[in-house]
From TrEMBL:
Pfam families: EpoR_lig-bind (PF09067), fn3 (PF00041), Lep_receptor_Ig (PF06328). Residues 100-195, 200-301 form the Fibronectin type-III domain. It is found in: Secreted. The keyword Ubl conjugation does not apply. Residues 309-319 have a biased composition (Low complexity). It comes from Poecilia reticulata (Guppy). Belongs to the type I cytokine receptor family. Type 3 subfamily. One of its GO terms (biological process) is negative regulation of neuron apoptotic process. Residues 299-319, 359-384 are annotated as: Disordered. Keywords: Disulfide bond, Glycoprotein, Immunoglobulin domain, Phosphoprotein, Receptor, Repeat, Secreted, Signal. This is Cytokine receptor-like factor 1. Signal peptide: none annotated. GO terms for molecular function: cytokine binding; cytokine receptor activity.
Amino acid sequence: ATNVAIVYPQDPVLRMGSNLTASCWVHPELGVHANSLFWTLNGHQLPSSLYRVLSPTNLSVTLAGLNASRQTSGDNLVCHNHKGHILAGSCLYVGMPPEKPVNLTCWSRNTKDLTCSWAPGGKGETNISTLYKLKYKLRWYGTEKECEDYSHTQPYSCSITQDLHLFTPYEIWVEASNRLGRATSDVIILDILDVVTTDPPSGVTVSRLGQLEDQLSVRWEAPPALKDFLFKAKYQIRYRLEESQDWKVMNDVGNQTSCRLAGLRPGTVYFVQVRCNPVGIYGSRKAGIWSEWSHPTAASTPHSERLMSCDSKSSGDSNSTLRRELKQFLGWVKKHAYGCSSMSMKLYDQWRVDMQKSPKTRNQVGKHRQMPRRKPTQTHTSAM
């Protein structure tokens, strides 16, 4: 029916709050009078008070104070005949021009790229497709370029991976545009060496300190990708109880690659992570950017002799729990260890990690664990 009926205007783009008058013109050969037509918006019939008969074959509708489009494909304004058949239609795109993009932030992973992210300004795109372009140039003599490697997982992110320059400031900004207008973010100026982040520390190990029931030793290695760089790293450690999701963070580790956790619960499995901040890389005076956390590493503190005392009322429950855990542990060892030489506390700790991943197994053990626990003392640190 599109060859004998037309809705005008076709697919208009309008600002929020504006008015629109559309008309439905029907070819005389259809033999349809304008009085018999009606309008719908997104499938809902519009009241006849909004209509105006312009001629025997032309019916208009006026929409005032338009709201933002409800869907990215546009709002469907459709003209129907008296039987409800669609004669013609149009898509309305209602929104606002883009506002200035905000929160432009950049970082470099091991000096191998320069990645920037940002956020839309104001209310965002309001269902009108907005195009964002990350622009950059060398501050004093470079030509303007556009980033090409836009992220598919993060909608407002792009990585510059070619022709990178160290010891040279960049000017970076974001341009936003849609069919209603355009806007540009503030320009930031940075040197790649001032925004370097690195891989997490490698070789993280957590072990007991003899029979000290409230302490664990943590060791790690500097990030491999930065071993040849001139920088002074600083580290953070965080740890949590096996049954908890709350991490405790140690901020005063400094540039050492080992640390002691103290004030821990006896007979308890802890998960530990480490991250790195490459401070002062190649002499930069900036604060540096923290890496991601390393993969969790697990270790258990020794059981307290007091809690294992046969005089304790809970010794029966404790021994029963230990026997149950030992039986499960030995069954696990048959699948993961070969010979007695493989039996070690690290193997036990690995079993505890696997148990953490299996809610069913964890609940079976945790349901019977009723040993009294000593209240932990305040956490403190000391360098080894």
